[in-house]
Amino acid sequence: MDYIGKSNLRVDAYAKVTGNAKYSADLAPRDAYIAKVLHSTIANGEVVSMDVSEAKKVPGVIGVFTCFDVPDVEFPTAGHPWSVEESHQDIADRKLLNKRVRLYGDDIAAVVAEDNVACDRALKLIKVEYKEYPVHTDARSMLNDKDAPVLHPNWRKDNIIAHTAFNSSEYFNYDEVKKNAITKYGEENLIEVVKNVKTPRISHSHIELPVSYAYVDANGKVTVVASTQIPHIGRRVIAQALNIPWGKVRVIKPYIGGGFGNKQDMLYEPLNAWLSVKCGGHPVLLEISREETIVCTRTRHPMDGDLRALATKDGRLLCRELINYSTNGGYAAHGHSITAKCAGIFKNLYRDELGVRSEAYTVWTNAPTSAAMRAYGVPQAVSFAETLTDDICVKGGFDPYKFRMDNICDENTSAGGAMFYTYGLKKCMEIGAEKIGWTKKREEYKNQTGPIRRGIGMCCFIYQTAVAPIALETSTVRMILNQDGSMQLSIGATEIGQGADTAFTQICAESTGISPDKVFIMSSQDTDVTPFDTGAYGSRQTYVTGNSIKECGILFKKKICEYALTMEEEKSLAGKKIDDLDVFENYVVDKNTKEKLVSLEKLSTTAFYSFKHNQHITAEKTTDITTNTFASGCTFVDVEVDMPLGIINIKDIISVHDSGTLINPALATAQVHGGMSMSLGYGMSEELILDPKTGKPYNDNLLEYKIPTAMDSPDFKVEFVVMKDPTGGYGNKALGEPPTVAPAVAIRNAVLNATGIGFNEFPLTAQRLVHEFKEKGMI
Amino acid sequence: MDYIGKSNLRVDAYAKVTGNAKYSADLAPRDAYIAKVLHSTIANGEVVSMDVSEAKKVPGVIGVFTCFDVPDVEFPTAGHPWSVEESHQDIADRKLLNKRVRLYGDDIAAVVAEDNVACDRALKLIKVEYKEYPVHTDARSMLNDKDAPVLHPNWRKDNIIAHTAFNSSEYFNYDEVKKNAITKYGEENLIEVVKNVKTPRISHSHIELPVSYAYVDANGKVTVVASTQIPHIGRRVIAQALNIPWGKVRVIKPYIGGGFGNKQDMLYEPLNAWLSVKCGGHPVLLEISREETIVCTRTRHPMDGDLRALATKDGRLLCRELINYSTNGGYAAHGHSITAKCAGIFKNLYRDELGVRSEAYTVWTNAPTSAAMRAYGVPQAVSFAETLTDDICVKGGFDPYKFRMDNICDENTSAGGAMFYTYGLKKCMEIGAEKIGWTKKREEYKNQTGPIRRGIGMCCFIYQTAVAPIALETSTVRMILNQDGSMQLSIGATEIGQGADTAFTQICAESTGISPDKVFIMSSQDTDVTPFDTGAYGSRQTYVTGNSIKECGILFKKKICEYALTMEEEKSLAGKKIDDLDVFENYVVDKNTKEKLVSLEKLSTTAFYSFKHNQHITAEKTTDITTNTFASGCTFVDVEVDMPLGIINIKDIISVHDSGTLINPALATAQVHGGMSMSLGYGMSEELILDPKTGKPYNDNLLEYKIPTAMDSPDFKVEFVVMKDPTGGYGNKALGEPPTVAPAVAIRNAVLNATGIGFNEFPLTAQRLVHEFKEKGMI
Question: Considering B309, B342, B713, B738, which has the largest number of Cβ atoms within 10 A of its Cβ?
């Protein structure tokens, strides 16, 4: 390949370093009004009345809008493609502002003013009278209270969004299987682990906060310029929320400073749109603060899983069971799909000889709304599965590496339409073990005593690429030949900081023969202009959109070659047929000899300006994808645990990924670095804590909610097992989300190796470590 | 037709009335630097040296750039499509800033500062040393001075841009033909008129001044947001001026407050682009003042024509001759094409029995640069031809209406690839004569005496539609189906205030079957995104782009119908074939019965989201036009001349147009109103006057340069002769420019009728009238 597999500089590198790349807030018109949201100070109840008279008197206030003013329409917020079948549509369970308050910080009113100061003053003057109900901030507590108020009576009377079970077979029953196993192997030859694992409520912590501005454009369209991963889906959601035709909404996405799934939901964009409409279409800017982001946007699901597993003493995994209670907060957002994905990955990660059960509840609670976050339930799945594995190994005295080699899913794994078209997991494990010095260190770290101990741990994962065939995977790409032989690449997929535009540019160059410096990707999406694509999520873009770029590029190249054949004045082309031609390094060339026949510069100028045969060469193509290939990988980590201080020092860490062809190795490595860093937070420091009685957050800011900084980061090592996947456009498969799955659990398993203590509640904070070591009398 | 021929409200009516429509200056980033240009205070010479040291010291000044700093590249500015043949390319005769000064107000330096005040202060501190040359502000004076300094020695040594002659036959010679005619008819049976006619230097006087801002975008593209009629051509010109690849330039055109041809040239956009590059790509705003606009942008060509004509005493026009000296100012801009068009129309307007000669010089002078202005040389052509006709009629005692009926061009006229595919001129004359009461009033106004006299006059014209086959006519259109069955219409043609977007919307509705309220036209062009089209000029857009919209619409509709056939779940479509289907009023219908089969709303939602057959329906099509059809028409006017005051009061005025089908009759009428108003200025008040010795303007502002206001405007009456032209997309032909051709000359001829004085210098100002009446002893 000519342009793929090269570590090109990011196409937006200079623009981002110089500040030339414009973000939503940079672009807001100077006369935009400022909007702010009033949030509820109770977590469950009703707004009985609201007095806005004093707020309206504040000079500069344009309008005060309350939950009593909004359209009586409930809408869904999830960034999923629409389904024409009602049963597959997302849950519509919220209004623009909610009279029925379901979480602390629910949106109950908004002020629009000429400036920030007037806006803040007015917000403080709104008087609210509530009726309060009892609060439940986690799934189990909600389910245990039979008298708990029903949060969404239109949908369910029991606050359960969904309850599903993935079993290995219809008749699988853990207790029966266990009974039979005892009969067959004898109880003395079996090991069972029974435990509970809890995962944290995590804030995405993207640098750019959710921000948008809305106005009614000259065409009368309600236009929202927003930091969103999903402009085309957002268009539909906003239209639903405002109850207007979908074509009357326009969403524009400038550069974005990270999303990590939080911006795969419509957050405040629908409200922003409505506020502008209420203000006569004047631009209204709505910037969400970090505090609001942490509590009022979305979080990773805290999950609480009851686990059981049975293995033979000679190291064969017989069966496993997970009963998972997933806390979904006040609104459904992505509904059950994240918990379901968690259940699926838990089930599929191992070959359980006698079967597996993965049962899952997603429950509405009075907590911040949980929804998509990078890796979409899989970090939790692996927290369940891979802590279980190490606990089995401890109990059975197995080497965790060998146990996994014997029991982990193999190349024949197939589930929900996904399969391994290429399988690199065991190769990843080999490389990781080799690089970290597994065998030597496992030996070395045996029988440690004293306050500071070393340990080594590992964790594996598998990951679906994109969301087909469960959900729609479709992408359209448009290509335009410029007058000088350079080209425009127009896509609906979104660069959100991950480097997608650079990967797309290289894919485009590969498929068109136009060198990357002459491929100008249009990074900003505008739903009125840009081809349709569902957006950035599910590690789908390089796979789905990438394939669409490839297909469109082939069509574009064909059109260029066809035009070349009309250039009768070019003697070099005389007698050539379409099958003789190719485009290579900005020339139409002879396909076999690579002889340069005519430059694209000359060809395009002629095509634009010829009297004889005038054509503005463009190509546009919709490609849908119905395949889904598993990516996989593992993390190995070597830690030093300072037991009296409760501190885990990472001495060495390596992630090895099976992601197919790397479009851009440097960017792929950076993607893994970012994911590993994010997983350190999940593993060791990040957790949004709520007062269980009031639902009020204790740490809704970045002083008290701790994300890893550069100072906390070890030297991240990354390796790849490169195999060309037959379903990826150029052999590539998922890499966006997978890097954030395994490191946290590898660390937990390394701490287990170091101290003998298997922590079952993430993150492994100093407090939890010290508490546990004290309990066990170790310090 | 369902949607064409209806007087729909302008699609931008609300946006423009409410201020929602954004113009270039509205959109400039708040941190943009301000640029201003230093203009020469001499009209011919060289900048010897420039001292910018004091200017650079002004706080807030970012940079001072002089004619010694700019790239050593001469570039063409005309808004013509590029030609791949060098001989057809425009004259490249200026730099971004000019050391060699050719007109008073030439651009010699520019200041970029943080604000207006710093910019103005710095401009004043630049010290310039000149070497001065003698000045010639008109073509004849330039040609008469054999020692005149050569302005563009790279191009011509004689200051003549071009000299051409259109003769009726190769051997036509006026003097010989006259000699032969005398022999044949006898001198006593012939009338000859010999005279000179001068037309004024006119300023376009668009409300929105030339304004642009430039920056380097995140893709590294030099981006110019500009009030221009020709974004795609501008892209090429800017690239040439900066000597960079054409694809590295991006031009964006927001709403525009009028252009009238002035914005069919690249004015300050290339300089603006370069200044931004010099300032590290930071946004730089360059707003041109009214004074600069009048002197330093473009004007209508002042022409100075020597005329002769021979007719028989029984009213047969035998032959005519025009030798026209056209003053082109300091730079070539559109070169000879405007004077050539003038020559062509002069030649073709009448059937000269024995032939015609139309000779033309276009001459570089030390005057403001003349270039395109609404009707592109034709007002001058008609000033020559139609004053000549009335002078013949006076001399021969002919009724000007009857003389024209007998001698004017007929339906067989064909010239330069243009012909009358439909011919309505004589019908227009009939209607105009009838409406104004020609016969009765001609009789009534005979033998007037006293200081206040009435007169009636008329003037005819013909006008080519678009510029083919002489120049390239090409247009691409893109259509996008939205998720709710509404659509986007994307074009490269430009709405510049004339109502093009509304006409395009109706044409689109007609061709697609999607009602105009669901057709969203994208009014702003962006050369990175928008399909290629050469822009707004030559009365071409409704004809060329309109045809392209029609063709694209047919393709789009076909794609919609093809999709419908894949919707197996729609029983109404069972058994249908593609030829059975049509789209009508937002439904796929049975072509014959108009039975509604499926709504576009349902079809589009299905197309976007179906798992079975997923397609984002778009269509894109390039259409080139090689035909050219003459439009035609006439103006009749009834005036009262107050001789002592020199005032012409228009008592009645009517223009009658043969423009094919009217896409939107109300807008067509408004277009004619505007053109008539503009012609009043040409006829009675507008003239930019220069000091012939220094080239310095006397009236470079709207206090002293007089455009007609609403107070000066009579009730404009408009009639149309509607014939469906076979070459227009829906039978339409030129209407943008023609309305501004005839009224001025009709007024002149009415004054002749009232007073017996045939004025031969436009405009007919009070000073000229009073002077002449005094000379003749009439007052």
Answer: B342
Contact A219 B521 (CB under 8 A): yes
CATH second-level architecture of B474-624?
A: 2-Layer Sandwich (3.30)
Instruction: For residue A528, list chain B residues with Cβ-Cβ distance below 8 A.
Output: 480, 488, 520, 522
Largest CA distance in chain A: 90
Is residue A551 predicted with pLDDT exceeding 90? Answer: yes
Containing A479, the helix (H) or strand (E) segment is strand A474-481
Domain boundaries, chain A: 24-133+210-287, 167-201+299-468+627-775, 474-624
The residues in A 278-307 lying below 8 A from B, measured between CB atoms, are: 281
Question: Percent of chain A having pLDDT more than 70?
Answer: 100
B27: helix, strand or coil? helix
Task: List alpha helices for A530-663, DSSP H.
Answer: 541-565, 600-609
Residues in Cβ contact with A179 at an 8 Å cutoff, skipping those fewer than 6 apart = none
Q: How confident is the model at residue A89 (pLDDT cuts 50, 70, 90)?
A: very high
Burial of A312 (0-12, 13-18, 19+ CB in 10 A): middle
pLDDT above 90 (res B313): yes
Q: Does A531 touch chain B (CB under 8 A)?
A: yes
- Whether pLDDT at B34 is above 90: yes
Closest chain B CA to residue A615? B622
- A616 and B624: CB-CB below 8 Å? no
B472 contacts on A by Cβ (under 8 Å): 609, 611, 614
Instruction: Please determine whether the domains at A167-201+299-468+627-775 and A474-624 fall in the same fold group of CATH.
Output: yes
Compute the distance between CA of residue A439 and CA of residue A416 in angstroms, rounded to an integer.
36
Kindly provide the ipTM of the predicted complex, given to two decimals.
0.95
| B176 CB neighbour count, 10 Å cutoff | 12
Asked whether the beta carbons of residue B15 and residue A624 sit closer than 8 angstroms, the reply is: no
Model confidence at B170, pLDDT cuts 50, 70, 90, reads confident
CATH code, residues A167-201+299-468+627-775: 3.30.365.10
Handedness of CA B16, B20, B24, B25 (dihedral sign): positive
For an interface test with B, which of A26, A86, A246 has the most B Cβ atoms less than 10 Å from its Cβ?
A246
pLDDT at A426: 98
Q: Which of A271-275, A567-571, A710-714 has the highest mean pLDDT?
A: A271-275
Question: Which chain B residue has its CA at the smallest distance from A217's CA?
Answer: B20
In this complex, which of A22, A485, A522 lies closest to B529 when CB atoms are compared? A522
Q: Which of B247, B476, B609 sits opposite A483 (nearest CB)?
A: B247
Cβ pair A609:B472 closer than 8 A: yes
Is A82 touching B (CB cutoff 8 A)? yes
Q: Does the structural domain A24-133+210-287 have CATH classification 3.40.50.720?
A: no
Contact A213, A22 (CB under 8 A): no
CB contact under 8 A, B618 and A620: yes
Pairing, β B317-327 against β A581-584: unpaired
Contact A247 B485 (CB under 8 A): yes
Mean pLDDT of A690-695: 98
Q: What is the pLDDT of residue A122?
A: 98
The rounded distance, in Å, linking the Cα atoms of A76 and A322 is 29
Chain centroid to Cα A644, Å, comes to 36
Sheet holding A45-51, edge to edge: A100-101, A45-51, A127-132
Picking from A245, A472, A483, the nearest residue to B614 by CB comes out as A472
pLDDT tens digits, one per residue of A286-306: 999 999 999 999 999 999 999
Cβ distance of B488 and A248 shorter than 8 Å = no
CA distances from B304 to A37, A720, B141, B679 (A): 69, 79, 11, 18
